[in-house]
């Protein structure tokens, strides 16, 4: 493999891992999937909550703010062509639920403002069948804010099918990072 990129067989393994982990409820994208190579790590943080701390209620279905602000660093600049964000939850019953898919973010972007979508970025379908940020509601779930550096734009339209969007993210991921909220405040 040249330039640290994954070959066709590696991409197929990632897609298979996504489908398997989603079906098992163990995560949606990048949750310890068995892939043929390790990915570079990104650092993901928020000025509103720390990793493993509760998600502030402002960013839930009882709040009025929308998505929390996020920051990331460590993006491999030479290979990255776009950034994607997936917000998902793993509930006590082991079922995974996607609350937001944001993709085709400019690769030079390093933060996401509260209740915003960066210019040029697109949003995909969520588990609820909606497009856009679908605020979490279950107080005891773990919510994951995963950022992916991709070697390509996804070339999908606004409102793209959830499964197809997640598969494309997996096919093009070269680095990833995650910020988790243990439950809702």
UniProtKB/TrEMBL annotation:
The record, for SUPFAM superfamilies, names: PEBP-like (SSF49777)
* Gene3D superfamilies (UniProt xref): PEBP-like (3.90.280.10)
* Signal peptide per UniProt: none
* InterPro entries linked: PEBP (IPR008914), PEBP-like_sf (IPR036610), YbhB_YbcL/LppC-like (IPR005247)
Q: What Pfam families has UniProt attached to this entry?
A: PBP
Q: Which family does it belong to?
A: Belongs to the UPF0098 family.
Q: Which NCBIfam families match?
A: YbhB/YbcL family Raf kinase inhibitor-like protein
What's the protein called, per UniProt? YbhB/YbcL family Raf kinase inhibitor-like protein
Upper lineage is: Bacteria, Bacillati, Actinomycetota, Actinomycetes, Streptosporangiales
